[in-house]
User: What shape does this take?
Amino acid sequence: MSTNKLFHLSPEVQDSIVYLLVMVLSGLPILYPLGLPLKINESTTTFYNTLNELPDGTVILWNEGYMVSSYVSGSEIAFYRMFFDLMRDKDVKVIFISSCVDGPLGGAMIEQMLKYGVDKTDTTYGVDYVNLGWLPGFEAVLAAIAQDIQSVTTADAYGTPISSIPVMQGLTTEDIALFGFSCGVSVDPWMRQWGPLNKPILMFGGEQLIAQAMSYIQAGTVDAYLNGGRGNAEFEKLYGYYTLQTATMDATNLISVYGIVLILLSNLMFRKRGVQK
Amino acid sequence: MSDMIGDLVFVAIIIGIWTIFYRENAVYKAISSSSVGLMLAFWLKGGFDTIYKDVFKPALFDMNLARMAVLVLGLMIFLRFYQSLAFASKWPIAILAGVGTAIASKGAVSAMILNQIAAGPFFTADILTNINNILIWVGAIATTVYFLFSFERGPILNTISRIGQVYMMLAFGVTFGMAVYGSSVLTQMNFLLKSPGYYVTIIAIIIIVADIVMRSRKQKPESATTS
Assistant: This one.
């Protein structure tokens, strides 16, 4: 047991110090932002420009794959707000839908965003946007969207038949000019179902997903992506609306450095003990 | 006022869950069990709402034949509770598996194979892209080699396998680190350290410190007795 002691501290106390430092390093920059510089990635710019350059009257579809818990981090607020700017300025129509594998929480995320996250001034529900809510089936829902948007559901999230919702009347999948999705799991289902449509696809995914999505990005199946919190912070900088995502970037950077230092230290200690033995 | 109470409860829940870093305790157990229960309730409510909206209503009130078929297939799953008809409960599951596989296979060829082949040349004018491509190839091959267990590895394969191991360590580390700190921990800090959340944080720290002091006082006489 004594071999595990470092500076006369027991392993339990060492663990607690590691966690305590994480809390201090992640908490301080949120209270006192360091304002570390943020270089905007090319894909974030493409994501922003793709939305910004949409022709007037375009119909877009956003598939929500994140849970409502991510609302508190403001993870999608900026581009949801931009959707509503596009509705006002360019008469863009937006269809919100969730086929989130995490269940109805994906629908709750859309609800939360529409209730508190965006500025709905001068936009009308049913005319400018519609919320089809959460639908079970994940890839089956994506396939139905790709096949015929009218077959996806019979009513919106609030029970209104889609036949009586103006934006849905006569709408076909072919009319949808841009597809977008956020996801926290595999990107493959979206690629399999929406890739063959040959329409622009935007993606927002957690940092851990970008490596998986990279092959589709390089193949051109995905036009642009936002790389997790970092991507969001970059998008917020371009859009000029700041949420907690920007504030947490400093903390993320500090924690990353701390993580690297921990890995190096623990490996050095391990090596040192090996040599001593 | 309701917002403030909501924030305080939110912070209390975060700290309650985080107390597991200190030690196993009743508050942690109560909150984690409640969250599982609430999540399940939310799932059930969402599931029932969707079944009512997209299956029951169109099938029973609008006489939509397709939805009626879905309803019948769904109900057939419950036949497993009747021994004489249990065999029929496998049919809807078979349909589900068949449709699922067919749907997944449909776009797989174009998106996952053809588009990948047509992705472009291995070497481009951009040096960074070339380095990236080389790293991807090395990583893919080395990681695959790591999982070759069918024959004894020589020194070369062992070295390649070690490279694969490093790649996986990096990938898993980044995945875990970004998943945990990218969104959860950092954003929760915002609530913990800002008003009104810090009141709860201060109270929690006082409770934990008091517990540490009390436990250490209890332990001292015990250790004195044993020695």
Summary: Residues 47 and 183 of chain B are 27 Å apart (CA to CA). The longest helix of chain B spans residues 155-193.
